[in-house]
Amino acid sequence: MARQKSIIKLQGSIGDISFYKTRYGHLAREKNSIEGSRIATDPAFARTRENMAEFGAVTSAGKLLREALRPMLMQTKRGGLIPRIVKLMASIKNLDTTSRRGERNVGTGIASTGAKALVKGYNFNEQCSLGAVFAKSYTVNKTTGVITLGSVEPATDIVFQPGATHVSLQGGWAKIDFVKNSYELQLSEVVNLGIDEGADVVLTPAAVPAGTGTDVFLLLISFYQEVNEVQYPLRNGEYNVLSVIEVA
């Protein structure tokens, strides 16, 4: 893979070189000259087929996670999220110590203690982490899904971004089954506070999510700017935080 540096940026193919645009700039690479039928059948490409199978499973698991959390993810900046999620799922897949090579998967790997440690504390907005924004301890009841933040004073407990006048807090409880490819997400009500408005904050999900799988508990912090008594998302959610605060 090479980076295009000329004034004229190309997209498409010239000879054996493909030109394309990514979030990292305009790139170029040589076309793959190996026929797909050979990769699918030639014993020399056995490792390649195994890697391709596992990569397909990893990307499917990443898509399932994004779909499960879509209502919360829509409120955060998501630039570069897909490759980061794929990387996370690949790390979890590698913790599958029972499946054969080519069959390792996230559904088996997620059961390990190490996998849960990878997911807990994960920040979906790469630019804004929970620890950098919320300076207060909290508790999570893994049986009821209730997130207790206690007495929250936004002016001192939350790092407000320039221009923000209000903040919203919301909890989520997702049950995600990476084996059955199923999920359910239950959200709490939104608690909205002005910068000088303190309150006792307890975020209770609407219900216990049905099904089986991994329990993922999340906290969403969203910033708003009030203009003429109407609150607008601050810079389209660029400073919003969505973080996994517990996994069971």
Description of the structure:
It is a single chain. The protein has helices at 36-41, 46-68, 70-73, 81-93, 106-109, 113-119, 130-133, 154-157, and strands at residues 2-3, 12-14, 17-22, 25-30, 139-140, 147-152, 166-177, 182-187, 191-194, 199-203, 214-227, 230-233, 241-247. 29% of the residues are buried. The protein is flat and about 65 Å long. The protein is α+β, with helices and mostly antiparallel strands and 248 residues long. A hairpin with a 2-residue loop joins strand 3 and strand 4.
The average pLDDT is 89
The overall number of domains is 3
Question: Uncertain spans, ≥5 residues at pLDDT below 50?
Answer: none
As a percent range, the share of helical residues equals 25-40%
Order of helices and strands: EEEEHHHHHHHEEHEEEEEEE
Q: Measure the end-to-end span.
A: 40 Å
Q: What count of helical segments does DSSP give? A: 8
Radius of gyration: 22 Å
| Class by SSE composition | alpha+beta
Brief sketch in words of this structure:
With 248 residues, the protein is of the alpha+beta class.
Overview features:
flat; 31% strand; 248 residues; 26% helix; 6-stranded antiparallel sheet; 4-stranded antiparallel sheet; alpha+beta; 13 strands
SSE layout and pairings?
Layout: E1 2-3, E2 12-14, E3 17-22, E4 25-30, H1 36-41, H2 46-68, H3 70-73, H4 81-93, H5 106-109, H6 113-119, H7 130-133, E5 139-140, E6 147-152, H8 154-157, E7 166-177, E8 182-187, E9 191-194, E10 199-203, E11 214-227, E12 230-233, E13 241-247
Antiparallel strand pairs: 1-4, 2-3, 3-4, 5-6, 6-10, 7-8, 7-9, 7-11, 11-12, 11-13
Helix pairs in contact: 2-4
